[in-house]
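Hi all, posting the design record for the shared folder.

TITLE: backbone redesign
STEP: 1 of 1
STRUCTURE INPUT:
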């Protein structure tokens, strides 16, 4: 079969070439965009990561494509409903990283709770003073977990190891697990108002767009931390900036940002005179990242050696099963 992989590095390419010997393969380090989608359209299977925006215009050009295998859990970068209309199957990697992303969530929490980032910055300047570096214990604090799926549940397990109390918000309540793991479900506003740290683990879609917004961010317990390792669009950037400015939030740990793809493309954006929205989002993101109570990582929650291997292996399984006429890990449009 003809299979094209986008957003791959040399090590991915070597592994995939070995495992898919006998197929006609194409590799690109770049995302799939409208510009290169005509060429991609001649392949039967394409595999992408999250910076390929598979919208209607792109899908229209994927004439021969029958499977899009995204090497991610989230699939908000793909118009799955339109793929379904065009009879293109979309598969994802549902379970590669619950521990990986949950561990990264705690990397952000601990950086903020113990001022690791500020200490590191001082150390680089040979400043070993401890003024202003007093942190706080996680033990006996309340963690608010929004989204108790694979990642959220692993976050709860780790939180319990730290001796934290956990309250959670989810549209689906798993009463059995909540009893075993000792956490309680509560309405969103209650989770926001009672938690010392709020952490987001819902998928991004039309229902979760700006789930944390100007209206409800004001209900957050004064001085709480907000952690986002899910997707940028779940939090309204303007609301986040305001909440940091008026000290509703004492800090934020951010692995994902609304408009993060625009930061990577900022120079291109300046050259091509992007629309006002992109310029505004870049400005907001620069404002957020320049604050010393914001710890930022560039969407690396998934990025561990073990998780990457699991991602590639599940993607290979999705692809090889498809070549045998079977559909593995299909996503259902929301
Ligand atoms: P999951 O599907 O196992 O869990 C999602 C949970 O959110 C479910 O329990 C679901 O009932 C709940 N939910 C869905 N819509 C909701 C709504 N409107 N309100 C309240 N609850 C809602 O997903 P998983 O594996 O835990 O991943 C969560 C998200 O984390 C992914 O969708 C992805 O966007 C993000 N992610 C980020 C990574 C990173 O590198 N930073 C890596 C992997 C995933």
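Okay, here is what came back for every position:
SEQUENCE:
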């Amino acid at each position: 079969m003809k299979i094209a992989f986008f957003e791959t590095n040399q090590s991915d390419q070597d592994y995939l070439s070995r495992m898919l010997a006998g197929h006609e393969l194409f590799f690109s380090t770049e995302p799939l965009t409208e510009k290169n989608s005509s060429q991609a359209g001649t392949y039967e299977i394409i595999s992408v990561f999250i910076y390929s925006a598979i919208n209607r215009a792109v899908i229209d050009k994927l004439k021969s494509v029958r499977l899009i295998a995204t090497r991610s859990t989230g699939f908000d970068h793909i118009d799955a409903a339109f793929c379904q209309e065009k009879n293109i199957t979309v598969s994802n990697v549902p379970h590669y990283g619950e521990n990986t992303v949950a561990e990264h969530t705690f990397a952000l929490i601990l950086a903020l709770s113990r001022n690791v980032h500020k200490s590191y910055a001082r150390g680089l300047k040979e400043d070993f003073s401890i003024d202003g570096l007093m942190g706080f214990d996680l033990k006996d604090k309340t963690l608010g977990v929004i989204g108790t799926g694979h990642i959220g549940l692993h976050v709860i397990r780790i939180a319990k190891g730290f001796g934290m109390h956990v309250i959670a918000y989810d549209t689906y309540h798993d009463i059995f697990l909540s009893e075993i793991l000792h956490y309680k479900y509560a309405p969103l506003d209650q989770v926001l108002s009672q938690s010392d740290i709020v952490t987001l683990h819902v998928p991004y879609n039309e229902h979760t767009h700006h789930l944390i917004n100007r209206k409800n961010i004001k209900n957050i317990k004064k001085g709480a931390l907000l952690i986002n390792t899910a997707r940028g669009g779940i939090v309204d950037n303007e609301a986040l900036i305001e909440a940091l400015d008026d000290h509703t939030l004492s800090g934020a740990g951010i692995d994902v940002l609304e408009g993060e793809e625009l930061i990577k493309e900022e120079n291109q954006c300046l050259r091509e005179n992007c629309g006002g929205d992109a310029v505004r989002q870049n400005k907001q993101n620069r404002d957020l990242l320049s604050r010393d109570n914001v710890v930022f990582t560039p969407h690396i929650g998934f990025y561990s050696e073990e998780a990457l291997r699991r991602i590639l292996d599940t993607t290979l399984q999705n692809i090889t099963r498809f070549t045998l006429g079977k559909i593995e890990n299909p996503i259902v449009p929301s």
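COMMENT: The domain at 98-296 is CATH 3.40.50.720 (Rossmann fold).
Let me know if anyone wants the other runs.
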